[in-house]
Amino acid sequence: MFSGLKDPEMCHLVIGKGQKCRINFTQALSLDVAYFWTTYSDYTKEKPRGLEATSMASLVDKDVYSRTNKVFGVSVNYKF
């Protein structure tokens, strides 16, 4: 499923929720309103500091990446 990714550890849980609404004013004119919120699980990247062959491997640089998308969209549609 994730064979296109070089690092399979980068595949994390994604939870999304969205709503949409269409308001028809006439047969040809409508308004769409949409909103969605996607929350991804945190990704922690750890990298040993210094030479990996030495006993200094106990020093580790740690980065935690967090990502959330919140999107709101509006469109006016006209059918010719």
Low-pLDDT stretches are: 1-8
Strand content: over 45%
Helical coverage, percent range: under 10%
Return the string of H and E elements.
EEEEE
Q: What class, by secondary structure content? A: mainly beta
Shape: rod-shaped
Biggest sheet strand line-up? 1-2-5
End-to-end separation in angstroms reads 42 Å
Number of strands: 5
Largest sheet: 3 strands, antiparallel
Mean pLDDT: 77
Radius of gyration: 23 Å
Number of helical segments with 4 or more residues = 0
Task: Please tell me about this protein's structure.
The chain has 80 residues and is mostly beta strands. The chain is 0% helix and 57% strand. It contains no helices and five strands. The strands form two sheets. A three-stranded antiparallel β-sheet has the order 1-2-5, with no helix packed on it. A two-stranded antiparallel ribbon has the order 3-4.
Describe this structure in a few short sentences.
The chain has 80 residues and is mainly β. The chain contains no helices and 5 strands. Strands 1-2-5 form a 3-stranded antiparallel sheet, with no helix packed on it. Strands 3-4 form a two-stranded antiparallel sheet.
